[in-house]
Design goal:
Low-confidence stretches: none
Shape: globular
Largest sheet: 3 strands, antiparallel
Mean pLDDT: 92
Number of domains: 1
Order of helices and strands: EHHEEH
Number of helices: 3
Helix content: 40-55%
Strand order of the largest sheet: 1-3-2
Structural class: alpha+beta
Radius of gyration: 11 Å
Length: 65
């Protein structure tokens, strides 16, 4: 699933993987739900941090910001 993505994701890639809007993606980052780096004005999300976030959910769980 994530093999086609780089080790460090941008916000658009993260949102595509999670199937959420960009607005929800930013809310998840600002809330601190997903660890990330801020480089200048852009966010970078290590794939390992996204996986850690995803592992915390039970099957069928809905992602909410």
């Amino acid at each position: 699933m994530l093999r086609d993505y780089p080790d460090v994701l941008n916000i658009d890639q993260m949102c595509e993987i999670l199937s959420v809007s960009t607005k929800t993606g930013y809310a998840l980052l600002k809330k601190g739900s997903i660890q990330h780096l801020k480089v200048g004005r852009s966010y970078r999300i290590p794939k390992a941090h996204l996986l850690t976030y995803l592992i915390g959910f039970a099957p069928g769980h809905t992602i909410r910001a």
